[in-house]
Amino acid sequence: MTAVDVRALVFDVFGTVVDWRGGVAREVRRLLGPSVDAAALADDWRERYVPSMEQVRSGELPWTPLDALHRASLSAVLADAGLASVPAEVRDELVLAWHRLDPWPDVLPGLRRLARSYVLAPLSNGNVALQVDLARRSGLPWDAVLGAEVVRHYKPDPEVYDSAAELLGVPPSSVVMVAAHLDDLAAARARGLRTAYVHRPDEFGGRVVPPSSDPDADLSVASFEELAEALGV
Amino acid sequence: MTAVDVRALVFDVFGTVVDWRGGVAREVRRLLGPSVDAAALADDWRERYVPSMEQVRSGELPWTPLDALHRASLSAVLADAGLASVPAEVRDELVLAWHRLDPWPDVLPGLRRLARSYVLAPLSNGNVALQVDLARRSGLPWDAVLGAEVVRHYKPDPEVYDSAAELLGVPPSSVVMVAAHLDDLAAARARGLRTAYVHRPDEFGGRVVPPSSDPDADLSVASFEELAEALGV
């Protein structure tokens, strides 16, 4: 991958751009109080993420945006934590925890450098309104919001990766998928995108330690600033 | 319409945000030389815009992004101007004229004020890549790029207006459609959006003078700064 071929970078968001675990736990503490194990609740909620999207990917459910999947899986999360009595309006607020996540410290300085030379967009399973809220909260300099809801398919469905190049009007080989997850990058690569792996050792709070690099990616970096450096901006 | 109900503003782009006639004529002069009547060529090209989208809206053509419609209609424009010998690579550059249009002078100061309180997005018939190029060229502070290509329908199809509220996760009545064209606003109103008319007397170079206000709109203004003022930001 030479920097000169690259026209756009598209980003996984949960875990790659923002710290979902810390942010969800913070909102859980705020809304449910200090007696709840907030980190455990965040972990449990996240574990239901892939199975809930799988219901849409398999056709069992019609297209359903991530906010609605989060709202549905929250019922089981709260029930399992002995919190079945949490009222509906607090549940609605808890779903918005996913709109109030903070970026990792290297994200804004890295994106600001990358934005000078490249088109930047999220390519996330989060819905458009969620991405807009995250971006407005932190000043993420996206040029457009791409991803699952635009094509009504969840990653790793090929339609999501294909849409990035198509909507940006460039060849797949000039788009770099940036993610902290090997499976997301493998699916992007299968559709002809370039790939950059970002090591996020704290995503799962140390419970799961991701590999330090992806041997199949064009680039493996430890931060968005290192990514900017590698692309010469 | 009270400002407190408003969550998002979505914008028509050609004529409302950017001066398509001045920008296309400038690029025509640059690429075809001073002997061509650049403004007449821009007008002729624009006149083929609605009929070319109509081929998609009627189902005669499958979904085709605006860049490709512009490329197809350019052949007739050049032939009618006695310029059938213009080579393919110059035609490709001419199509990109629509990506290089400048905003009216009030646009950036108005949008910067509106961005403090409201989610802002284009809701145009122009494709996503075109909107990204326009925004990066001038610094238009969009939070997302919505519009025709995202839903594969051209305005005034109802799907385009419906998608704005749906993708932004808000009720249609909290979204304001901003446009310099009465038909666009009427179609938005029919789908439950609020409407703001912007008077752009120079859009057609004085050949057609638009009305100074739209009696059916919630607001009629002469600039984006006046729109910000009316919404109290």
From TrEMBL, chains A, B:
GO molecular function: hydrolase activity, acting on acid halide bonds, in C-halide compounds
Lineage top rank: taxon: Bacteria
Keywords: Hydrolase
Record InterPro entries: 2-HAD, HAD-like_sf, HAD-SF_hydro_IA, HAD_sf, PGP-like_dom2, S-2-haloacid_dehalogenase
UniProt key word Ligase: no
Gene3D superfamilies: HAD superfamily/HAD-like, Putative phosphatase, domain 2
Alphabetized SUPFAM superfamilies for the sequence: HAD-like
PANTHER family per record: HALOACID DEHALOGENASE, TYPE II (AFU_ORTHOLOGUE AFUA_2G07750)-RELATED, HYDROLASE, HALOACID DELAHOGENASE-RELATED
Family stated for the protein in its record: Belongs to the HAD-like hydrolase superfamily. S-2-haloalkanoic acid dehalogenase family.
Protein name: Haloacid dehalogenase, type II
Organism: Geodermatophilus obscurus (strain ATCC 25078 / DSM 43160 / JCM 3152 / CCUG 61914 / KCC A-0152 / KCTC 9177 / NBRC 13315 / NRRL B-3577 / G-20)
Organism lineage string: Bacteria, Bacillati, Actinomycetota, Actinomycetes, Geodermatophilales
